[in-house]
């Protein structure tokens, strides 16, 4: 059966913030399957910060090729299979990329159970690069414990939304979110249960944090880097754990990444800074997924979604991600799940 495959491909590598002309909408044909392959109709794509870094010539994650589709994790349904473990109708999660149909080895996909949670929850609340990342960061790297004072940056985004809620569920006595603008700060407190919020676009982060946590902070879960990281470093105390989850403020200019100016505070205050990537903690996935699913199903944590509709919205969605035009998990709906 011949199928058209509407896709977004990379036309050229962005210089700074990606613009529409860096991408192209094309319609290709879905190829015949080879042994071991499946064809998946993409339901939703997660728009993750790592996608921006794959647009560079050299990137930590496998990079996008000029003329090729752009790496993105997604959920969808198998429509054709020549792989023993999957059959048409199965719901799957995997690196489906910026397209309508993904043809790939079945071994690269994971069959997901959508009886308890929706398919999009496998990208958000339970998602490898969202819920699981926040869970691993808070439990295994920050090792949050009862009565900790925890600060999270990019707190209204996908990872940040989950990180703050997880810290609260682990017993933190105060969870403070940093986000851009009063609406997001209100969202943090009213929708996500953060105890307080700092608007980094309008507040002085350093002095506001001193007011909110006069004894200093125990954990900083950083998604942003740059000026925000520097401001928080001025408020660490003896033994603070600074966790580097990411540094989105740097991703538009990866050849000139700016390190923290105030890193000597780590030495002065006998504090530690540790980075991690979620896939360093595969041994935590089962435990994390089980706990996240329980919390999500019983309503202890929520994962708001911002959905852009149509694969052609992929470049616009990436711009929304980088400029912070969303709250919670940003998704592109390609077809029905
Ligand atoms: N370590 C890992 O394994 C791992 C895995 C997944 C993700 N991550 C990291 O987690 C972070 C969040 O990723 P995500 O996919 O969940 O994205 P996201 O938080 O949903 O979206 C990114 C957010 O970053 C904020 N932001 C953008 N530029 C900023 C700047 N210059 N200064 C301050 N804030 C800025 C924006 O919110 P505002 O409106 O508040 O500015 C935006 O909403 C990224 O750093 C990513 O690399 C790490």
List keywords for this structure.
six-stranded parallel β-sheet; globular; 337 residues; single chain; alpha/beta; 9 helices; Quinone Oxidoreductase, Chain A, domain 1; binds NADP nicotinamide-adenine-dinucleotide phosphate; 15 strands; Rossmann fold; seven-stranded mixed β-sheet
What does the model show?
The longest helix has 13 residues, at 285-297. It is globular, with a radius of gyration of 20 Å. It has 2 domains: 4-124 and 304-333, Medium-chain alcohol dehydrogenases, catalytic domain (Quinone Oxidoreductase, Chain A, domain 1), CATH 3.90.180.10; 131-280, Rossmann fold (3-Layer(aba) Sandwich). The protein is α/β, with parallel strands linked by helices. The mean pLDDT is 97. It contains 9 helices and 15 strands. The two termini are 21 Å apart. The strands form 3 sheets. Strands 3, 4, 5, 6, 7, 14 and 15 form a 7-stranded mixed beta sheet that branches. Strands 10-9-8-11-12-13 form a 6-stranded parallel beta sheet, sandwiched between helices. Helix 2 (131-141) crosses helix 3 and helix 2 crosses helix 8 (285-297). The structure holds NADP nicotinamide-adenine-dinucleotide phosphate. NADP nicotinamide-adenine-dinucleotide phosphate is lined by residues 48-50, 129-130, 133, 154, 156-160, 179-180, 184, 223-224, 228, 245-249, 276-278, 321-322, 324, 326, 330.
């Amino acid at each position: 059966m011949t199928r058209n495959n509407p896709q977004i491909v990379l036309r050229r590598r962005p210089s700074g913030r990606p613009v529409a002309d860096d991408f192209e909408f094309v319609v290709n044909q879905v190829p015949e399957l080879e042994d071991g392959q499946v064809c998946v109709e993409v339901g939703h794509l997660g728009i993750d910060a790592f996608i921006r870094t794959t647009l560079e010539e050299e990137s930590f994650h496998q990079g996008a090729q000029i003329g090729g589709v752009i790496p993105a994790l997604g959920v969808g349904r198998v429509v054709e299979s020549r792989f023993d473990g999957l059959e048409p109708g199965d719901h799957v999660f995997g690196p489906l990329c910026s397209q309508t149909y993904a043809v790939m080895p079945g071994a690269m996909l994971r069959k997901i159970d959508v009886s308890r949670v929706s398919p999009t929850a496998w990208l958000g609340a339970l998602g490898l690069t969202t819920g699981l990342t926040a869970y691993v960061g808070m439990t295994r790297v920050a090792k949050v414990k009862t009565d900790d004072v925890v600060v999270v940056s990019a707190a209204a985004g996908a990872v940040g939304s989950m990180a703050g809620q997880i810290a609260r569920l682990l017993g933190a006595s105060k969870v403070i979110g940093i986000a851009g603008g009063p609406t997001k700060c209100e969202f943090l407190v009213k929708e996500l249960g953060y105890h307080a919020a700092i608007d980094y676009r309008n507040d002085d982060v350093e002095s506001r944090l001193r007011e909110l946590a006069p004894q200093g902070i125990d954990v900083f879960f950083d998604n942003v880097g740059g000026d925000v990281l520097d401001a928080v470093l001025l408020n660490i105390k003896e033994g603070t754990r600074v966790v580097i989850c990411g540094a989105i403020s740097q991703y538009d200019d990866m050849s000139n990444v700016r390190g923290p100016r105030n890193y000597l505070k780590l030495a002065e205050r006998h504090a530690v800074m540790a980075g991690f990537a979620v896939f360093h903690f595969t041994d935590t996935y089962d435990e994390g997924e089980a706990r996240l699913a329980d919390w999500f199903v019983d309503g202890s944590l929520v994962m708001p979604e911002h959905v852009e509709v149509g694969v052609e919205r992929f470049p616009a969605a990436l711009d929304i991600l980088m400029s912070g035009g969303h709250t919670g998990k940003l998704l592109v709906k390609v077809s029905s799940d």
